Prior knowledge:
Blueprint: E1 2-9, E2 14-27, E3 32-46, H1 54-57, E4 61-75, E5 86-98, E6 102-117, E7 123-137, E8 157-158, E9 166-168, E10 177-180, E11 185-196, E12 202-213, E13 219-230, E14 237-248, E15 255-256, E16 258-262
Antiparallel strand pairs: 1-2, 2-3, 3-4, 4-5, 5-6, 6-7, 7-11, 8-15, 9-10, 11-12, 12-13, 13-14, 14-16
Amino acid sequence: MAGLGREWERECYDEERTRGYVGFERRYKNRWRRSIGFRVGNVDVDSIDFDAPREIKDVKGDTFLAGVRFGIGRDLTDDRFNPTKGYSFNAGYEQVSGDHTFGILSGTYRRYGTLYEDLAERKTILATKLLAATVLGDAPPFERFYGGGTGTYGIRGFDYRGVSTRGLQTNVASPKKKEPIGSDWIFLANAEVTVPLVSEEFAALFFIDSGAIDSGNYRASVGTGIQILIPQWFGPVPMRIGVAVPFLKDDADDTEAFFFSVGRL
Length: 265
């Protein structure tokens, strides 16, 4: 059970969200799990720029949304927070109603493997991830997909929300597709290798991130960084800092060289 109230200054408008969520999960002995979750909330869009796209202006004011999500997954990794081998996957569908009616279908697959183990039992780990998600129906811009950054839809080397379909300007003589309005689907493929340095707590990180949305070309970046394992009562959690450079991108994409994140791929 959780509640959330936040405000964001988006690219051409301000967004305020209030949301309540409650979820239930059942785990099985064979490491399968099923879940169901319910959310209800309001999104307020205001302070819209005069040249904002029509898709943004159409959702000005309050929007009420309520959703129910069904999920299934399995985790066969050797460690929940710092895996070195095994795989996990999850899939889910959320039906949303209220002022808009649409569905969100998503799935994620992760695999981890040990490439090399030295005499000190320090492991070089290869991690890969595939993610796909799509909107079924007509979702408002604040419920669509935005790639970039290091979050759920992260593509390192691109700014948060920097990979998106762009909306056409309004109220200008020569309109351009400038501001992000979200995408109806997204696909991501990521791979990274961590190589221990002085100890297992410090590792070098090398990776390739890539993905596609419903507009533009395929995007991809390459990068490197440092991983530090931070001790916690439930086990060590990876903290990463590094740099990434896109080598496939669209002209309208927003890029960001440096990144910071917590957790594995």
